[in-house]
Write a sequence for this structure.
């Protein structure tokens, strides 16, 4: 992947962060870097103070720093700001953050030397991932502490994870790969720290994951509708056209495709025919659709941010170096929180569908808890407990981080976004949603198979067949359930569920 001076796509971020795509600087980026560095060098030679070049930082910006101390100043900001605590941030999130910072450096707006950008690209390509603790960023002045831990590896200090997954001193890892620690010059330490790259990287990764999970939820909802002998008439296009939300229409269309040709839907009501299915079944497209539209809004914010060049001060193409507030994470924090709310609601409705499958008073003829010999066997009773616990956690994670602000830096930085915290809890929520949908999938496939003599839809049969190959066993006496639920989680996470359904339906939106 060749980096120019313009923005990158979300796909580029995922390719580098998750799949290890290599990164190179274009000639255009090299020229932009050199041009902006000349501006910074000229300002460094002037006697007056310039923030980030010849001054301290934050509340200490009033002190003028002479030429003899400037290398130390830049090195010290990295060391002092690498003050995080807690468990390590995941490798893909750190790589996304590094790549996005490199992308901004290549814009020519930060004033760093070309060799600094080359060194960061080499670090990514070498598979060396800095150890970044979870806690430290307030989501304003950029993701300072997390980015400082990344910069620490670049100067050969601290610890990092090697390509083999082991954590060792960064200096040794650099030496093994023939990389030389960077000696920072004016503005370069600050330029490595002052961006929203951590928040943005985690947003982009979450969008990729949630796109998969929303399609998965349409499939599990369809399987549950089928298992409950529900009606697919509520999925008719003309009903969704009268409330023209695009996400809702897409969710309904996906469910229709999965249910096409089913022998279970709407034809086998019990002695008290149902006029309407319960909300958790009937309103599945409305809830999943609203979440899809939330994803679309978040994707728009991410695309704008991917085109942004965030630093403070920023080097303008007319030669000015100006202080600004573009590092404030509010745009990202809001959508990160919004996505956590939408994901929690999707998990909540999936759990309600699962509970209905297990309750013989509401499941329209299915055995209690889908057990083989109810009373002797407990079936999936406790699987639903696990699902409910995950839903409870997701509801707690839906509390917005962006509604909080704690002043810092002696009240110079007196309003912050907490966007990093919003991103961290969203990553947790994504994992929980994956597990919740896995439990619904496990219950729904078992329930469909218990409808003896009735023929499920071809797409349902394909999903069930693929699930059985993946280790999700069918109905039967009680057995050790955790491994099968873990297999169901991986079946959802990997996209195998979607692939199995799409082998019959074609692409799902």
């Amino acid at each position: 992947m060749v980096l120019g001076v313009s923005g990158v796509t979300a796909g580029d971020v995922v390719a580098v962060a998750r799949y290890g795509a290599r990164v190179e600087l274009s000639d255009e980026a090299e020229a932009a870097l050199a041009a902006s560095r000349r501006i910074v060098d000229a300002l460094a030679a002037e006697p007056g103070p310039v923030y980030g070049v010849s001054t301290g930082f934050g509340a200490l910006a009033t002190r003028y720093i002479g030429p003899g101390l400037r290398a130390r100043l830049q090195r010290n900001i990295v060391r002092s700001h690498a003050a995080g605590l807690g468990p390590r941030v995941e490798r893909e999130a750190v790589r996304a953050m590094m790549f996005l910072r490199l992308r901004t450096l290549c814009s020519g707006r930060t004033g760093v030397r070309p060799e600094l950008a080359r060194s960061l690209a080499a670090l990514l390509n070498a598979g060396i991932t800095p150890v970044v603790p979870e806690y430290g960023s307030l989501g304003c002045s950029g993701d300072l502490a997390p980015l400082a831990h990344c910069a620490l590896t670049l100067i050969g200090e601290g610890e990092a994870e090697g390509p083999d997954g082991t954590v060792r001193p960064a200096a040794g890892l650099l030496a093994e790969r023939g990389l030389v620690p960077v000696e920072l010059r004016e503005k370069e330490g600050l330029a490595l720290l002052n961006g929203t790259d951590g928040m943005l990287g985690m947003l982009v990764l979450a969008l990729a994951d949630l796109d998969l999970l929303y399609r998965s939820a349409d499939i599990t909802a369809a399987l549950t509708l089928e298992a409950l002998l529900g009606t697919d008439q509520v999925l008719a296009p003309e009903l969704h056209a009268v409330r023209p939300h695009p996400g809702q229409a897409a969710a309904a269309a996906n469910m229709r495709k999965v249910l096409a040709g089913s022998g279970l839907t709407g034809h086998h009501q019990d002695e008290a025919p149902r006029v309407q299915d319960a909300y958790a079944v009937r309103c599945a497209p409305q809830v999943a659709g609203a979440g899809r539209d939330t994803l679309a809004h978040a994707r728009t914010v991410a695309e704008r941010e991917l085109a942004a060049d965030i630093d403070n001060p920023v080097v303008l193409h007319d030669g000015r170096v100006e202080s600004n507030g573009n590092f404030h994470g509010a745009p990202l924090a809001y959508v990160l929180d919004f996505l956590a709310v939408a994901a929690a609601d999707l998990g909540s409705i999936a759990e309600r569908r699962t509970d209905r499958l297990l309750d013989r008073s509401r499941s329209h003829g299915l055995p209690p808890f889908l057990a083989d010999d109810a009373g002797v066997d407990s079936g999936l009773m406790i699987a639903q407990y696990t699902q409910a616990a995950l839903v409870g956690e997701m509801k707690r994670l839906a509390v917005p981080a962006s509604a909080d602000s704690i002043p810092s830096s002696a009240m110079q930085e007196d309003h912050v976004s907490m966007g990093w915290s919003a991103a961290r809890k969203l990553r947790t929520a994504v994992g929980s949603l994956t597990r919740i949908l896995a439990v619904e999938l496990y219950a729904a496939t078992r329930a469909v198979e218990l409808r003896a003599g009735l023929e499920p839809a071809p797409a349902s049969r394909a999903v069930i067949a693929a699930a059985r190959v993946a280790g999700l066993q069918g109905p039967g006496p009680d057995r050790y359930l955790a491994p099968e639920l873990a297999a169901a989680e991986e079946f959802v996470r990997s996209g195998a569920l979607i692939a199995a359904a799409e082998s019959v339906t074609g692409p799902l939106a």
